Amino acid sequence: MDSQLNRSIFSRVKADWWTDYFDEYYLRSQGKFYEDAIVTSKEWDVLSSYPEIQQLLRRGDENSQGQMQNERKVEILDLNCGQGRHSILIANSKSSIQVHGHDQSQFLIDLARARSSHLSNVRFSVGDSCSVPADRNSYNMVMILGNSFGFYPTEMGDHNMLAEVYRVLQPGGVLLLECTDATFIRENYELINEKWRWLGQDENLIACYQRELSHDGRRLATREIIVATDKGIIKDTSIPVRLYDQSEFTEIFRNVGFVVSEDSFRKWPTTLLSGQYGMLKNRVTIKVCKPV
Ligand SMILES: C[S@@+](CC[C@H](N)C(=O)[O-])C[C@H]1O[C@@H](n2cnc3c(N)ncnc32)[C@H](O)[C@@H]1O
């Protein structure tokens, strides 16, 4: 029994764990954050404050007023888009911008499609993040948001995902990535370790979390167990995420060919979320470009 209890979370990780983790229970356990429209809208205010992104959105406005040529239509890819919260927000606010959300979860993409059926400027596809169904140079901007990077078991997998982003971005296009602040997690990971909470108000579901930082600090494994008080354990998933700090991100981006500049990295305002948000409270935003 003790040896079971002491087993490393890393040893419990199943290959391709993401193929069955991102389902209705993911939305229930993470919904406090990922399903809160006010949080998403505040996030977008922060993300879109980069001058390049403001410029891109303005170009969308000019297009819709007929001042620009059609060939300069603004195209955005939301990679690992989940249930499409950012894609739908952007498409709703800018009818002139074409948004494409891509994610491996059929469940989340079905939800995204149902929620956006009234919009003609957003589409969704299901598939792996290393193979986006698009030609090279298709998008003005690619976004990887809401802690959606570092899931592959090797750094080569992460590299291949970024190489795919590079392929589909236009020269001069922007990659906007937003994820947990690795430096904060490495220094404070006990703060987010071993927690449990009720899910929803009148449901009898509980989510329990245990975390383990690898010895080299590169990977954080989270074990999430969902329990129904009347049924017992419903789901038990171990999730390993590669944490990249500023210098590790700079290296992987430059290896792929992106231009990293002095203003590429921004710390997320921690005041954005009041209360307990685990790995989502302290985040960084990174903006890099494909050379012209
Ligand atoms: C934490 S969720 C964030 C979703 C969304 N970006 C948001 O902010 O709401 C991570 C997403 O990455 C997707 N994902 C994980 N691994 C993937 C892969 N190999 N290929 C495509 N999508 C993947 C999951 O299905 C999930 O929707």
Automatic annotation (TrEMBL):
Gene3D superfamilies associated with the record: S-adenosyl-L-methionine-dependent methyltransferases (2.20.25.110), Vaccinia Virus protein VP39 (3.40.50.150)
Pfam families given in the database record: Methyltransf_25 (PF13649)
Location of the Methyltransferase domain: 76-173
N-terminal signal peptide: none
Lineage top rank: taxon: Eukaryota
CDD domains membership: AdoMet_MTases
Name of the protein in its database record: Methyltransferase domain-containing protein
Lineage, uppermost ranks: Eukaryota, Fungi, Dikarya, Ascomycota, Pezizomycotina
